[in-house]
Amino acid sequence: MPSTVSTTEAGSTDKTRTWIALVIVGLGALGIVVISWVALAESTDKSETARLIFAAVLPLLGTWVGAVLAFYFTRDNLQAGSETALRAVRAVGGASPESLVTDIMIPVNRIKPVETVANDAAAKQLTLSKIYTAMQASGQSRVPVLLDNQSALYVVHEPDIDKFAQAKGIAASALTTETVADLLSEASIAPEVTSFVVVGPTATLADARAALGQTVHAKDVFVTTDGQRSSAAIGWLTNSDLARQS
């Protein structure tokens, strides 16, 4: 399987592509304007020349911009389409227990929503309202919290926030200043947030499923570079993903 791309590398690639697109479009537009201006300046019949320039420049500019936009967006669309198709195959049982977790996992740079923090203290200061809003906007029911080195720290699930809010007698949407630290202070909720399974890239679905079944409260599996909890995660699987592969 191709190696996954880190969030930093993906961001650098996006910035480079954006820069190239802007430069090409800018230089193209500038070149067309200069050529048109010179042609008009040297022409004796400016009205006819203007008509000819207008007829020639618009298709050229449209083709130019279209080519740049195709370059800019095709890669992401192709990757997104490929992942959608692959997940559809998985959903109908296209993977066996012997399939590697790397064939099924969501690459870490594709996890959305996700919170990335510098350290545990910063993670605990994340507000539940921010996390809950991200869940509602994305339609996802859980948000992983990763450290800057991509190692997994917590996974906050929507039922965790709902349970916390109910204990306070308010709706989850009404939470304001409450934080992950407050969530962890609840003995009945903390294990749901801190418990998850870690496996290495050579683990199979059967291995991940077995590990998840042996870990109380765990609902998530992170695939790390070497199977260690403190190592960088390269992908993520949920208990729902594993259930669909049964």
List its salient traits.
alpha/beta, 246 residues, 7 strands, 10 helices
Question: Could you give the topology of this structure?
Answer:
Layout: H1 7-42, H2 46-91, H3 101-104, E1 106-107, E2 115-117, H4 120-124, H5 128-138, E3 142-147, E4 152-157, H6 158-167, H7 180-184, H8 190-194, E5 197-199, H9 205-213, E6 220-224, E7 233-238, H10 239-244
Parallel strand pairs: 2-3, 5-6
Antiparallel strand pairs: 1-7, 3-4, 6-7
Could you characterize what this model shows?
The chain is α/β, with parallel strands linked by helices. The protein has two domains: 7-91; 101-244, Roll (CBS-domain), CATH 3.10.580. The chain has helices at 7-42, 46-91, 101-104, 120-124, 128-138, 158-167, 180-184, 190-194, 205-213, 239-244, and strands at residues 106-107, 115-117, 142-147, 152-157, 197-199, 220-224, 233-238. The strands form two sheets. A four-stranded mixed beta sheet has the order 1-7-6-5. A hairpin with an 8-residue loop joins strand 6 (220-224) and strand 7. Helix 1 (7-42) runs antiparallel to helix 2. The radius of gyration is 25 Å and the shape is elongated. Residues 1-10 have low confidence and may be disordered.
